[in-house]
Amino acid sequence: MRTGRMILALLALSASLPALAQAAAPVTATSPDGAIAVEVKIVEDGRVAYSISRKGQPVVTTSRLGFLFTDVAKLDRSLAITGQDVRTSDDTWQQPWGEWRQIRNNYRELKVHLAETVRLKRQFDVTFRIYDDGVGFRYEVPDQTAMHGANIAEELTEFNFASDGTAWWKPAFLWNREEYLYNKTPLSAVATVDTPLTVKLADGTHVAVHEAALVDFSGMALARSQGTSFRAALTPGSGKAKVIKIGSWSTPWRTLIIADNAAGLYTSHLMLNLNEPNKLGDVSWFKPGKFNGVWWNMIKGEWTWARGPKHGATTANVKRYIDFAAANGIPNTLVEGWNVGWDGDWFGDGNAMDFARPTEDFDAAELASYARSKGVRLIGHHETGGSASHYEAQFDKAFKFAADHGEMVVKTGYVTDAAQIERVDPDGSAYREWHEGQWMSNHFIRVAEAAAKYKVAFDSHEPIKGTGLQRTYPNWVAREGSRGMEYNSWSGKNPPEHEANLVFTRMLEGPMDFTPGVLSLTGEKGSAILSTEAKQLALYVVLYSPVVMAADTPENYAQHMDTFKFIRDVPTDWEDTRVLNGEVGDYVTMARKVRGGKDWYVGGIGDEEARSVSFDLTFLSPGVKYDAEIYRDGDDADYRTEKRHSVAIEKRVLTSADKLTLRMAPGGGFAIRLKARK
Fold first, then answer.
1. Which of 143, 460, 475, 590 has the fewest CB atoms in 10 Å of its CB?
2. Torsion-angle region of 177 (φ positive above 0: left; ψ -120 to 50: alpha; else: beta)
3. What's the pLDDT tens digit per position in 152-177?
């Protein structure tokens, strides 16, 4: 009997060997151009792992996948590949606004089916979309008896880089959210970081690790485990689990943009393509454009948001800003501190904020009428002080008030320390959440949907990271999410390299409301901003947002009208964008074509070093002459001296056959308008 049972067991094992061998064999797929290859295989202890190579060279070596849960066994071993599906897709879609009108979405998709061979026999898929410029992958978990509810303690996704390199990064999970300067260190010296993490590997390959389509999930940071190996670190929630899912679910896409150089990182469309198409329908009511506003004087400490003798948002003050906007073709005027709730200590407690009740010295109806008569729209401000549930309770009245007063855009804010967002459930239970936790990822979707009902767009400050969701919710037009211009008013100013860092790090997330254009180059108490005047102009081309501020005051602009002309002229919506040259943290030159037109604008910014940059104008239409207005650093310009205001303004006629060489002063830059002759 025993011998018979052994024979039967051996026969069964023999019959299963081909299937096991097939399941154990690696599965692979490549990008449409064949340059990028992904391999998925089962490694020791039945763990599933992926690797990525480019042009035959490893980029990410064997990196394991899986999850930890708070209430059941982890999901990362005793796994088998049970099947695979491969498909290709190639289409083109159009952005209603953006840096490019047309976006090509060309990829090969590999879906790997996995199952546990013991214990709970749980099943899940890992789907890879492989583009010519990178890879996105996500977990997809069907509803099943063994995992109907998932209380996720941590994601075990690894990113094991094949070599060391140079990394640009800022820390994660600190009190000041994403408001930190970028570090430049060896990859092997990185700590726990916010994404995007930008890396230049030893062979020169550039990689940016981030995520796309962050919906109903916790934001992902990266924690270095050893050497050049990293693992996902999810943002905590208010409970034991970092993420709670019911039924079938998927993670955001984990993304790696891979390029030959820094320029290739910026021009990738991978982030947008991995998001769902527009869910809001026709959003032609949103018109990109610049704005000025009652803001910089508060940042400098000369006016206040709160009521009192220095209150900035008075009817008289706002009318002056509307007049300036109307006189200079600026379509919008922002007002902060217009509503009840700013008095007292509101930091981290915005429960007194009322987003439909103006202060007694702000006549909302009169100002809406006055702005309309001048061809200007007001931009409202909803500062929550981190009291997100209190804000949600006012969604309808807040956005109706905005729409009734002609506000096409509202700027939102969540000023409180990390992990101090106030959430109050319907039963009255109170919790504290992180800005990038699962609950807040859903909160921002609720903002988008509530605002869209009233045809209102929003620009979020102290936000959750950008993950390409402007494609799905195109009324989410901008966000802050890094150290913007306000830090240049205060002590501990942004260094000259900051904006050149942003281009290849923060700007990979999507539009940023940096609030440029402070031509006075002075912050609080007359302190000097570490920039030349020409660089302030260049920022309008280099740092993209469809709603961009002329941040200085009318009084200050009146003293710089020769250079302010560029701010008046430059649009905020583009047909095409080219990165002509650049290195992370050092410099960049960018060219953008006006949407629906023939004109181009070029902006170049540098760091603390003086340098000359050269670039061809082959992006211009052949055979067409362009009248060029060039705003460059004067020969004596230097951000460290009073010569920071030295600007040379030149006019030339240029064609696509020309090449320009321009000098950037320390802390400097240049801006060019190229107007096509008819």
1. 143
2. left
3. 999 999 999 999 999 999 999 999 99
The two structure tokens encoding residue 347:
């930091």
CATH number belonging to domain 286-481: 3.20.20.70
CA-closest candidate to residue 449, choices 284, 243, 283, 287: 283
Distance CA(326)–CA(378), nearest Å, equals 12
Pick from 118, 161, 125: which is nearest to 48 by CA? 125
Q: Considering the chain, tell me which residue range(s) the CATH 3.20.20.70 domain(s) occupy.
A: 286-481, 484-678
HSE, CB side, 13 Å, CA atoms: give it for residue 179: 23
pLDDT of 216-268, one tens digit each?
A: 999 999 999 999 999 999 999 999 999 999 999 999 999 999 999 999 999 99
Residues of the chain with CATH 2.70.98.10: 23-273
d(CA 625, CA 423): 58
Distance, CA of 517 to CA of 330 (rounded, Å): 13
Gap between the Cα atoms of 376 and 362, Å rounded: 17
User: What sign does the dihedral 177-180-184-190 (CA atoms) show?
Assistant: negative
Lowest mean pLDDT among 14-23, 42-51, 399-408, 661-670: 14-23
Amino acid sitting at position 529: I
DSSP string, 339-393: BTT-SS--TT--TT--TT-B-TT--HHHHHHHHHHTT-EEEEEEE-TTBHHHHHT
Q: Identify whether the C-beta of residue 436 lies closer than 8 Å to the C-beta of residue 443.
A: no
CATH dotted code for 484-678:
3.20.20.70
Q: What is the pLDDT of residue 9?
A: 40
In the set 116, 480, 486, 575, the catalytic residue is 486
486 catalytic, yes or no? yes
Mean pLDDT of 26-53: 98
pLDDT at 414: 98
- How many angstroms separate the CA atoms of 461 and 452, rounded? 18
When pLDDT is cut at 50, 70 and 90, the band that residue 3 belongs to is very low
The two beta strands, 134-141 and 332-335, are unpaired
Helix (H, G, I), strand (E, B) or coil at 448: helix
Measure the N-to-C terminal CA separation of the chain; round to a whole number of Å.
96
